[in-house]
Amino acid sequence: MPFTPEQFEEMSGKLGLVKEEIGKFIVGQQEAVEFSIYSILADGHALLEGLPGLGKTMLIRTISEVLDLSFSRIQFTPDLMPADITGTSILERNEEGMQRFAFKEGPIFSQMVLADEINRATPKTQSALLEAMGEKTVTVLGETRQMARPFFVLATQNPIEMEGTYPLPEAQMDRFLCKIILPYPAKSELKEIILRTTGPRLIEIQKVMDAEEIVMAQEMVKEVVIADEMINYAVDLVSATHNNNNGSTDDWAKYVQYGSGPRGLQSIIRLAKARALVSGRYHVSIADIKTVAKPALRHRILINYEGEAEGVDVDDLIVKLLEEVRQGASVQ
Questions:
Q1: For the chain, is the Cβ count within 10 Å smaller at the N or the C terminus?
Q2: Cβ-based burial of 281 (10 A; exposed 0-12, middle 13-18, buried ≥19)
Q3: What's the pTM value of the predicted model, to 2 decimals?
């Protein structure tokens, strides 16, 4: 059943309150806050890259409190096993003294999951997240269990201290809706962080929405209108990332080994629709697509050896791509 304009307006207002409430505790990191919300609304997952101590854990914990969702944190380490994530069946006795197997859920069975430093665990353990992220189910000993709704994974990785890590394969990176980069706080933000965290004032987080409303918002995102012209522009952007495409720029053909696949296009459209809803609009604009392009594509583009040797930055290439791909160009 289509939603009414009044329902869209009410939901947009609530999402604005969500951002305000998160801002009471989280200082700065506007992109991280916004794209975490967009990813939840688009029913996807996010990969967060930043140095230790920049508030990654506190961000996702604060969002879970504002949205009144269950939260769990998984600290990925080299000795972490898949069963530590998904849970396992154990033998226990009932009241009659009979033994039986009972399934004990792991931390993945939460509505919001923080996969902290995911690249520190082995590929076997990393893959334990894939089914839950992609299919919203977990299969243990042949029995498939459904995940709660909404279900959101925020995985973090440290850009330094790469010794002893297992970088995520490109196929696994592709499953994340977007990749968010956490920068250093500005001087004014550093001062505000100190005032909020070392002073006597206790900041109380108010619950603004609940799980049922989030699921409703996810359905609203699907109904946000996107014109063919906007879809064509997004298709042109993704197509231009392929270095064998005639529309590719010279820098792209020179420095890029692989471009984005269809999931990159899906991510751009879903994130753009979520941004439109949060902004109080019922249709996707060109600004929505341009704003979400970098987070949606930066982890789906593989720089070749020459590009790495010259220190080419993927974000710079995407910015140049946005400048050179013209809106309204015909899709080949």
A1: N
A2: middle
A3: 0.85
